[in-house]
């Protein structure tokens, strides 16, 4: 307990799945959290459930001005911003021949451009507060290795991997007290997994059986597995870690 005392975090995609789990654990570890999500009903419910140390902000990560407003809201509500978790994301199970222009544009807008916007606006604010700050970006195992069936997702997540490193170098070169890292989940049991199974005409049990085979550890991950990775990277325990790609993937990318 208390690993994130005095931290103030924006967590995107925090109305469900990994983002919601991360928000709940951040609160338990002493942080104040802005639940940033387009799903107003679910986001408000999560924030209300978490109490006075949580607040909801309706955020479209692909809208730059919305990011500016979110950071301003965070500062007004909790006094500062020390932590950004760029967790929001979408996925289409489509290969290069199947991917439509609309699906490509939406995937890039949310998974890649939204991360850029969030980092740029957050860094501008974080550099003024004089405190140790951190950013953790959700990439994926498919930001490290490719899979034909997720063409646009691979493209966007691969970009996030190197955008993270470039931002970490910038913060270091500017002598800013801001660390920037990426997290690379394997297949995790979340609402996105259910959506992916549905896209492929599978039951969730069939989906699990397919992807468990790809993880040498022999099972799929849970949202908590990723959330605790975010906790570590956001804590002062990770004071010397920046520009790192943290794989939380049951040895998927070790193959």
TrEMBL record:
It is an enzyme of class 1 (oxidoreductase). Pfam families: adh_short_C2. This is Glucose 1-dehydrogenase. PROSITE patterns: ADH_SHORT. Keywords: Oxidoreductase. The keyword Oxidoreductase applies. Belongs to the short-chain dehydrogenases/reductases (SDR) family. Its EC number is 1.1.1.47. SUPFAM superfamilies: NAD(P)-binding Rossmann-fold domains (SSF51735). InterPro entries: NAD(P)-bd_dom_sf, Sc_DH/Rdtase_CS, SDR_fam. It comes from the Bacteria. GO terms for molecular function: glucose 1-dehydrogenase [NAD(P)+] activity. PANTHER family: 3-OXOACYL-(ACYL-CARRIER-PROTEIN) REDUCTASE (AFU_ORTHOLOGUE AFUA_6G11210) (PTHR43180), SHORT-CHAIN DEHYDROGENASE_REDUCTASE FAMILY PROTEIN (PTHR43180:SF66).
């Amino acid at each position: 307990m208390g690993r994130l005392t005095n931290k103030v975090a924006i967590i995107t995609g925090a109305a469900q799945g990994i983002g919601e789990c991360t928000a709940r654990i951040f609160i338990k570890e002493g942080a104040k959290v802005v639940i940033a999500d387009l799903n107003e009903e679910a986001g408000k419910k999560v924030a209300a459930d978490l109490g006075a140390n949580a607040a909801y902000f309706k955020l479209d990560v692909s809208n730059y001005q919305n990011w500016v407003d979110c950071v301003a809201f965070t500062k007004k509500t909790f006094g500062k911003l020390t932590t950004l978790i760029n967790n929001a994301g979408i996925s289409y199970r489509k290969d290069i021949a199947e991917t439509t222009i609309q699906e490509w544009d939406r995937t890039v807008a949310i998974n890649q451009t939204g991360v850029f916007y969030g980092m740029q606006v957050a860094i501008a604010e974080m550099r003024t507060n004089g405190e140790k700050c951190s950013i953790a970006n959700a990439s994926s195992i498919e930001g490290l290795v490719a899979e034909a069936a997720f063409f646009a997702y691979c493209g966007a997540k691969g970009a996030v991997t190197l955008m993270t490193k470039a931002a970490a170098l910038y913060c270091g070169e500017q002598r800013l007290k801001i660390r920037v890292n990426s997290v690379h989940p394997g297949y995790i049991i979340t609402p996105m997994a259910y959506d992916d199974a549905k896209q492929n005409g599978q039951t969730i049990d069939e989906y699990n059986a397919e992807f468990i085979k790809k993880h040498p550890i022999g099972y799929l991950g849970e949202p908590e597995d990723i959330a605790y990775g975010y906790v570590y990277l956001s804590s002062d325990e990770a004071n010397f870690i920046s520009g790192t790609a943290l794989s939380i993937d049951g040895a998927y990318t070790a193959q």
